[in-house]
Design goal:
- The protein is built from 14 helices and 23 strands.
- It is of the alpha+beta class.
- Helix 1 runs parallel beside helix 2 and helix 8 packs parallel to helix 12.
- It binds ligand EPZ.
């Protein structure tokens, strides 16, 4: 199995261009099948999640053409048939085919695995929304058949401001009869990006980005060209790396306001940043950093997806930092391997991590447990003394476009080794 090898401690200088957002494009691709004509997406990142979704589109006989960062999708010859687990369980975001196929043809048959390493990951709110729109759901233990004679707009209240449920219900509602209102909707920027695609096809979605979204059903959706927004989590990951090793590091093609919570926390720690319209320049400090406390929250709070990547930074702050994970029940799985690299971290109730710094890290052999946990181990390897080997790198390559090449381009000694 291939692994990542890093020779740590090198300062990084130069520019890293951020790619299209994973958590946007994994919804935009299924959303495109709602269109009655062709959809062109640009700024599509080169990540394995996109390849997995393309496999599902091809399985459904949807016409897909890819060229560089562009993806053209035409579902006019689509054949709606049961989507097997072998295709749908490669990524959780395959659940967006539920809303898209229900919204387009009032039927979806999909094998969908519950849970994943960071938590139970239920989809009860997605299903609640589909039911309230008029669908019947046959749930046969990870195999869902969802169908409706008619989808009728209604008011849906989300008990949790779920990103996935907000988007999935939006997809199911764009061609429903009448008006659907989603209350307590999630406000993440990716939701706005999906709503913008839908509206550019002729849908009527209002309020995306606020906690009340209103969708008025339409009958026809015409062709559209749409750009994937920059990946705020990829941008945040490199900003953290720049705070540790930037000499300096310029992170460009970003929307700084999308990572405001991270920028404030890093500034609180003493990181100095130069912020432009679509870039940030960050240089490591020789004066050390103050410890900070982090509590994850829904947008615009501190993103749970940047909880694991910030931990290596906190090991280098002078004092005790505290992290509280409020979104997932099991998002500290990467901590034992960071401790193996000599960090001083205690996890309590799987909800709190207490990090004592400044602790120099030592390279070691570690294993990625999930996408953002893998990213945190990679950051540890970049700052550690000596060599680090990271196994299970498929997790990292799911969500970070050309991360090894991007880091090599600014001076990191990092490579993917293909072992037998
Ligand atoms: C999206 O997942 C992201 N994934 C996650 O990023 C991200 O961590 C999460 O939003 C929160 O920001 C994609 O966009 C593909 P949620 P999603 O529904 O939509 C509970 C990454 O690393 N919940 O907002 O699945 C759930 O248990 C990934 O890129 C229900 O109870 O997240 C969790 O506690 C990891 N019932 C909370 O809501 C439901 O029906 C947040 O989940 C749905 C969710």
């Amino acid at each position: 199995m291939a692994y990542i090898k890093i020779d740590g401690g090198r300062l990084l200088e130069g520019e890293i261009k951020i790619s299209g957002a994973k958590n946007s494009v994994v919804a935009l691709i299924p959303a495109a099948i709602l269109c009655d004509e062709e959809v062109s997406l640009v700024n599509v990142p080169t990540i394995s999640d996109v390849d997995s979704l393309e496999e599902i589109l091809s399985f459904l006989n949807v016409d897909v053409k890819r060229h560089n960062d562009e993806m053209k999708i035409d579902s006019n010859k689509m054949i709606n048939k049961p989507i097997p687990a072998s295709l749908s369980n490669k990524l959780r975001a395959s659940y967006y085919f539920m809303g898209a196929l229900l919204g387009k043809g009032h039927k979806v048959d999909i094998y969908f695995p519950g849970g994943c390493t960071i938590g139970k990951r239920p989809i009860d709110l997605h299903l609640k929304g589909f039911k309230e729109l008029g669908a019947t759901i046959t749930d046969m233990d990870d195999h869902f058949i969802i169908e409706a004679n008619e989808l009728k707009g209604c008011k849906i209240y989300l008990d949790v401001a779920s990103v996935g449920a907000t988007i999935n219900i939006m997809l199911a509602a764009v061609k429903a009869k009448g008006k659907t209102i989603i209350e307590n909707a999630a406000k993440e920027p990716e939701i706005i990006n999906v709503a913008t695609l839908l509206n550019s096809m002729g849908a009527k979605v209002k309020g995306a980005g606020t906690n009340v979204i209103e969708i008025t059903g339409v009958n026809y959706l015409h062709k559209a060209l749409h750009e994937v927004i920059p990946d705020r989590i990829e941008a945040g990951t490199y900003l953290i790396i720049g705070a540790l090793l930037g000499n300096p590091l310029k992170i460009s093609n970003i929307i700084p306001s999308h990572i405001e919570s991270l920028i404030y926390k890093l500034q609180e720690a003493g990181v100095s940043t130069l912020i432009g319209d679509d870039y940030i320049v960050v240089r490591r400090s020789d004066d050390g950093y103050h410890p900070i406390d982090i509590k994850t929250a829904v947008y615009p709070g501190y993103p749970t997806d940047l909880q694991q990547p910030i931990i290596p930074f906190l090991t280098q702050c002078d004092g005790i930092s505290k992290v509280e994970e409020t979104i997932y029940e099991n998002r500290f799985m990467n901590i034992p391997d960071i401790v193996k690299m000599s960090a001083d971290i205690i996890v309590r109730d799987n909800r709190y991590a207490i990090i004592k710094g400044k602790t120099p890290l030592k390279g070691d052999r570690v294993i990625a447990t999930d996408l953002r946990g893998g990213a945190s181990l990679l950051i540890c390897g970049l700052i550690a003394d000596g060599e680090t080997r990271i196994d299970n790198i498929k997790y990292i390559l799911r969500g970070y476009d050309q991360i090894v090449e991007k880091l090599q381009s600014v001076g990191a000694k990092i490579e993917i080794v293909d072992s037998e």
